[in-house]
Write a structure and sequence with these properties.
mainly beta; seven-stranded mixed β-sheet
C-alpha cells in the first residue's frame, strides 16, 4: 500500500502564490508518473499537471505559464508551484501517483487539499 498526503493548500488573494506538496509513503517499489488534479464544486475532477519519473511534464492549458510541477524522487514527493492564482483556480487539489510493483500497476490518490483564491 502507498499513502499520499497533500499539504500546502489555503486561502490566498488573486495574484498570489501557493506551493502544494504531496509525499508518498508506505511500501513503495517504483513511482512512475505523478500528478495533480483538481475538483471545483459542481464540476468534474480535471487534470492540472503531470510529471514522469524522468521529469517530463505536461499541463492543462488553463494553468500553463502559471503553475510548475516538480518532483524529488529521493523523497518520493511531488510539488505544484502555483503563481498568479485566479479565483477560478479555487478547488480541492488531489495528488495522484502511478505505482509499479513486480506484479501490478496501480493508481493511488491523496485525500486532497483545499485551495481558495479570493477576488
Amino acid at each position: 500500500q502507498v499513502q499520499l498526503v497533500e499539504s500546502g493548500g489555503g486561502l490566498v488573494q488573486a495574484g498570489g502564490s501557493l506551493r502544494l506538496s504531496c509525499a508518498a509513503s508506505g511500501s513503495i517499489f517504483r513511482l512512475n508518473a505523478m500528478g495533480w488534479y483538481r475538483q471545483a464544486p459542481g464540476k468534474q475532477r480535471e487534470a492540472v499537471a503531470r510529471i514522469t519519473s524522468g521529469g517530463s511534464t505536461n499541463y492543462a492549458d488553463s494553468v500553463k505559464g502559471r503553475f510548475t510541477i516538480s518532483r524529488d524522487n529521493a523523497k518520493n514527493t511531488v510539488y505544484l508551484q502555483m503563481n498568479s492564482l485566479k479565483p477560478e483556480d479555487t478547488a480541492v487539489y488531489y495528488c495522484n501517483a502511478e505505482h509499479a510493483s513486480f506484479s501490478s500497476l496501480r493508481d493511488y490518490w491523496g485525500r486532497g487539499t483545499q485551495v481558495t483564491v479570493s477576488s
